[in-house]
Amino acid sequence: MVRITWRGNSTQELLSSCRLRWSYMKHCCHSLTFNAHMNSSYASDVCMTPIFWVVDNYTHCLGPFFVIGVACLTTAVVSIAYWIGFPFWLAKGQLALAFVLIVGNWLLLNVIFHYIMAVITPPGHPPENVLLVEAVTMCGKCVTPKPPRTHHCSVCNRCVLKMDHHCPWLNNCVGYGNHRYFFLYMLYTTLGCLFLILFGLEIGYKYLWLDHGENWTELEPLVGQPVKFNLSGHIIPVTHPHEYDEFDLPAAVHNLPTPVLDTDAPSPGRRRALWFMAFTNVAVVIALGTLCSWHAKLITRGETSVESHINEAERKRLLKEQRIYINPYNFGAKKNWKIFLGLVRGRSFWRTVLLPSWHKPEGTGLSFHTVHDAALVDEWP
Fold it and tell me: Which PANTHER family does this chain map to (predicted)?
């Protein structure tokens, strides 16, 4: 009985010693890796650091290939649309063809213009080696004064005025100087793909859905009697059991339907091109349409992609203090869109938005009006 008690005490002491050592090891590990700012976001940033490094150092090398890819993809889609769509709508009538050509080329013109301008237009950078009275802080990476709404691009390794993001498809930053071109390119590309889908549904239904091999029907019922296949491959009824076996009988004459060759049936190459158009346009509408909707929401709220994260964090911080955060650059949906599209100083919507326009954004990008400005007039600035 004494021996059993001794073994039980020994087992408890061993378990207690193991727990103590495990607790000591955990405390040592925590003390060596302690960080007062540690949270899930910080941990995810640490884990994503290698990916960020690759993006920052190699995105600018891949940018030209992305631009060439966009140009080749656009050229392929437009070429297929003319190759297959033009004859189809020409057969429909001249009025239908004229409508498709006018609307389609108007969309194409806007897509090409706004993409080229978004690529070649600088987003805007703070001037160097000058005293900036508009500066509100210093950039910790390039150690230069930063005006309001300016952020550092790790890919370009420069500060960008009113930076939204770095777009690899443009091989350029989206910022103060080219934000309007970038958004209108997305908008017109989405509309152009929707246009091709809408006016290509009938073409796809005719050439991809319907079967063009069955263009004739049997004229005589074939149920309940023997049949044969003639030289053309059609099924014919046998009216005499030995009509082809006896040489003294004349050959039977049958009135058979002549197969109609469908000259409109697409070749395998055209069918593959139509499937390519279908998948490409649907994918672009989903991807680019979603991105365009997101940017439209940001424009309505008077903020950029970078500012949306900053403002959201500020809202949460002030909410804990039972205070409300007000975006200083949010003048209301209508005025935000007028400022973004440049519909000021008498500019019209049809000339500025519906047609290509080279007008630059108002101001210098170094300072911006806020909702706190007392002298704010309708025609800002």
Answer: PALMITOYLTRANSFERASE ZDHHC16 (PTHR12246)
CA atoms of 159 and 124, how far apart (whole Å): 9
Give me the phi and psi of 137, to 5 degrees please: -160, 180
Confidence grade of residue 270 (pLDDT, cut at 50, 70, 90): confident
Name, of 40-44, 145-149, 194-198, 309-313, the range with top average pLDDT: 194-198
Q: How far is CA 222 from the centre of its chain?
A: 56
Q: Name residues whose C-beta falls within 8 Å of residue 190's C-beta, 6 or more positions apart in sequence.
A: 284, 285, 288, 289, 292
Distance (Å, whole) CA 174 – CA 139? 19
Q: pLDDT exceeding 70 applies to what percent of the chain?
A: 75
**With contact defined as beta carbons under 8 Å apart, do 159 and 122 qualify?**
no
Letter for the amino acid at 337? W
Measure the CA–CA gap between 291 and 336, rounded to whole angstroms: 19
d(C-alpha 306, C-alpha 295), whole Å = 12
Coil/strand/helix, residue 49 = helix
Q: Is the C-alpha dihedral spanning 49, 51, 52, 53 positive or negative?
A: positive
Res 219 pLDDT > 80: no
- Contacts of residue 268, defined as CB under 8 A and 6 or more positions apart, other chains included, come to none
- 159 among known catalytic residues: no
pTM: 0.74
- List CB contacts of 282: < 8 A, sequence separation 6 or more: 193, 197
Q: Tell me the β-bridge partners of 152.
A: 159
Measured CA to CA, the distance from residue 366 to residue 131 in angstroms comes to 12
Instruction: Give me the catalytic one of 153, 156, 167, 173.
Output: 167
